[in-house]
Specification:
Blueprint: H1 2-8, H2 13-23, H3 28-42, H4 44-68, H5 95-111, H6 114-133, H7 139-166, H8 173-181, H9 189-212, H10 220-244, H11 249-274
């Protein structure tokens, strides 16, 4: 509590705006855009590696929250909480911080540049501090998010590397079986959504490697067209599925599966067909 109050002692309209902007670096819209750009325009293999680590890290985070069930500091005397729509569920560990750690550490390990180590760590720390400034987490939540995120990147990368190097795709069962078993124990609807997205990612990876073999090499203008087309399609698919499917957990799983399938299969196949890759 003392740490939260100390950080919030600098409260001002500027810092309210600044830390809300920083905390967006740990939210789904940023990650969806970043992974789509990497997958479609930069590096297909790394896009799948990053997507797998990030999505399954969110599954792990949701499961841990359900296990510990620690309430957030929202509403406690002396704590000022804002941007509450990003603070659903339980408190430990911080989902924003864990996602940011998973995302930026994955890129750090990919680039292996000293300057990016510094930059990435600063972003992770900034996202963690933003959650304290916004009054939606305790310091232990932030530390837990960093710890779980870092460890999971190593585990996820090991599973992905094993399948890449050996061709033994059954290794994905180490993720799939616990993930679907968790549906019987985790009540959070977010878990269902991420389960659908992870299923789409793994299916998309297997289909892409065998049948599509998408190449990212293209001029800047062509890449801009592909991204615009891909994101437009994703928005249309999302809106259609939102109207077509009912508001239940299983429909959420199916909805996010189809959205993920668009990003990993339909969009690359469309690009390859239209632009004659």
């Amino acid at each position: 509590m003392e740490i939260i109050e100390l950080i919030q002692s600098i409260s001002s309209p500027f810092f309210d705006w600044f830390f809300q902007l920083v905390t967006m670096l740990g939210e789904a819209p940023f990650f969806i855009l970043a992974i789509a750009l990497i997958l479609w325009c930069v590096d297909v293999e790394f896009g799948y590696r990053l997507g797998l680590a990030l999505l399954t890290s969110n599954l792990l985070n949701t499961g841990i929250k359900e296990f510990f069930r620690i309430e957030r500091p929202i509403g406690l005397p002396g704590v000022r909480s804002i941007r509450l729509h990003t603070a659903g569920g339980y408190s430990f560990p911080s989902g924003h911080t864990q996602s940011a750690t998973t995302f930026w550490l994955s890129i750090i390990l990919k680039l292996r540049k000293k300057w990016f180590w510094i930059f990435g760590c600063l972003v992770i720390l900034s996202v963690g501090i933003s959650r304290l400034y916004l009054g939606v987490h305790y310091p232990i939540d932030v530390l837990g998010g960093i710890g779980f995120g870092a460890v999971w990147v190593l585990i996820s990368n090991w599973i992905f590397d094993y399948t890449m190097q050996t061709g033994k795709n059954w290794a994905f069962l180490f993720i799939i079986i616990p993930m679907y078993a968790g549906l019987f124990f985790v009540a959070d609807v977010f878990y269902y959504k991420i389960t659908g997205a992870v299923t789409a990612l793994i299916c998309g990876y297997l289909i892409e490697r065998r049948y599509i073999k998408y190449q990212v090499r293209a001029g800047l203008g062509l890449q801009v067209c592909q991204v615009a087309l891909g994101l437009t399609g994703l928005v249309l698919v999302t809106l259609f599925l939102k109207k077509a499917l009912s508001d239940t957990a299983l429909c959420d799983l199916l909805r996010y599966f189809m959205m993920g399938f668009w990003v990993t299969v339909f969009a690359p196949l469309l690009f390859k067909t239209l632009f004659k890759q």
